[in-house]
Specification:
244 residues; 78% helix; mainly alpha
Length: 244
């Protein structure tokens, strides 16, 4: 059987495992959608609020389904000895990790589409104005946060510590990056920190694609910052990867 066929089978296995884990399904998939519905219903019924909230929740969804999910999963698999056992099987590592990563990519794509559909049909938000730019920033965000999630898993000592480590990064980042309100309203110090980190730039790119119709060339700085974080994440994820 080819590596591609094995990767496909691993991907289908990961999909079944994901939906059989209620905690993972809720925190990594349903929670961002719940935030969108609750906040839009309570505070964001106006177009101006929705223009911030829809791309913000889409950016948060990318981070939750890749960074948080992979940091948790790799830590769990390493501590449980699963990675060590996989290494001892004929299954190629590329097929195994390809299936694992493809599962996170599918979750991220589904989340972005659901955020857009919910925003349009429930709250009358406009359709995205630049689908190509949406695809570019969505894909770059997935690569960036997926790589950073795997890199972070190398620093997590055990699975019990995983929530503390991931939330110490995830929660501050979503509050300073413009998920629920415009980051331009932040104090200068917090805005400066947000400008250095990748989530704000992913959200800026998504906002340009969904709200303004701004293309990729209008967000070259955002593209460069997210690309730099993605390159650093890939390097750290590969350089310090360990099977056990």
């Amino acid at each position: 059987m080819s590596t591609a066929a094995l990767l496909w089978r691993q991907f289908r296995f990961e999909r079944r495992l994901f939906w059989r884990n209620p905690s993972a399904a809720f925190f990594n998939f349903l929670l961002p959608l719940l935030f969108l519905v609750l906040i839009a219903s309570a505070y964001g019924s106006g177009n101006e609020q929705l223009e911030v909230l829809v791309p913000g929740i889409a950016g948060m969804a990318i981070m939750a389904t890749t960074f948080t999910a992979l940091a948790f999963n790799i830590t769990f698999l390493r501590e449980g000895g699963v990675l060590k056992r996989v290494r001892g099987t004929p299954l190629p590592p590329g097929a195994y990790f390809g299936g694992l990563l493809l599962n996170s990519v599918v979750n991220a794509v589904l989340q972005i589409l659901l955020v857009i559909l919910i925003g349009h049909f429930l709250y009358d938000a406009a359709w995205p104005r630049d689908w190509a730019s949406l695809a570019v920033f969505g894909a770059l965000g997935v690569v960036c946060f997926g790589a950073l999630g795997i890199a972070l898993s190398h620093a997590i000592p055990n699975f019990d510590s995983a929530p503390a480590y991931t939330n110490a990064v995830f929660l501050p980042l979503i509050f300073i990056s413009g998920v629920f309100y415009s980051a331009d309203d932040l104090p200068t110090v917090l805005l400066t920190i947000a400008e250095v980190l990748p989530l704000k730039h992913v959200i800026d790119g998504l906002a340009g694609a969904i709200v303004d119709g701004a293309g990729v060339t209008d967000h070259l700085t955002a593209l460069a910052v997210v690309g730099a974080w993605a390159a650093a994440g890939v390097f750290l994820a590969v350089r310090y990867f360990r099977w056990e």
